[in-house]
Structures are given as structure tokens and as C-alpha cells.
Amino acid sequence: MPYILISTQIRLESGPTTVGDELSDPELMEFLGAQKVTELGNNFSEYRVQTMPRIVLDKLASRGYNVVSMCGVGQTLIWCLYKP
């Protein structure tokens, strides 16, 4: 899986950080220390870590991922990373 999105709420930029969806690579999610969670009322799961986005970005960079773009949508910060 060459692309990955990570996100966090602006008011929670020290964590938690969402690092994947229910179809994400389980081995990569384990490397990040992510737990699969399902919010009440959602019919999908997400992977989350309790660390800040900078730590997640550093870990993904060590695996060869590069930030392609970053943006803010409402109160959410989103990074798109790509691994060549």
C-alpha cells in the first residue's frame, strides 16, 4: 500500500492520531503501535495511536514514506504520505 493518510483534531494535536482505516496494512499498523477502534454509531473501524502526529510522521519516514501534501479541513489536520 503506497499511500497512507494520517489525521488529528487541531485541539488534540498531541494525540490521538488516526493512522489508517480498517483495510490498512496490519503489519504497518502494528509497527506504529496502532489499535483498531470503532466509534459508537460508525459502521467502520479506524486505527489510532495515542502519540502526536510528529512521532507518527518520523516513524513513517523511517519506513520510506514521504509527505506528499498536508491540509487543514475544519478542525482536522490531514497528511498524505507516499512510499515509492
Provide a concise account of the structure shown.
GO terms for molecular function: GTP cyclohydrolase binding. Keywords: Cytoplasm, Membrane, Nucleus. This protein is an alpha+beta fold.
Question: Mind explaining what this structure looks like?
Answer:
- The protein is α+β, with helices and mostly antiparallel strands and 84 residues long.
- The chain contains two helices and six strands.
- The strands form two sheets. Strands 1-6-5 form a three-stranded antiparallel sheet, covered by helices on one side. Strands 2-4-3 form a three-stranded antiparallel sheet.
- β5 and β6 form a beta hairpin.
- The radius of gyration is 12 Å and the shape is globular.
- It comes from Petromyzon marinus (Sea lamprey).
Using brief descriptors, characterize the structure shown:
84 residues, GTP_CycHdrlase_I_reg, nucleus, GTP cyclohydrolase 1 feedback regulatory protein, cytoplasm
- Biggest sheet, strands in spatial order? 1-6-5
Helix content: 10-25%
Beta percentage is 35-45%
- Count of separate DSSP helical elements: 2
Q: What is the CA-based Rg, rounded? A: 12 Å
Q: Which descriptor suits the 3D outline?
A: globular
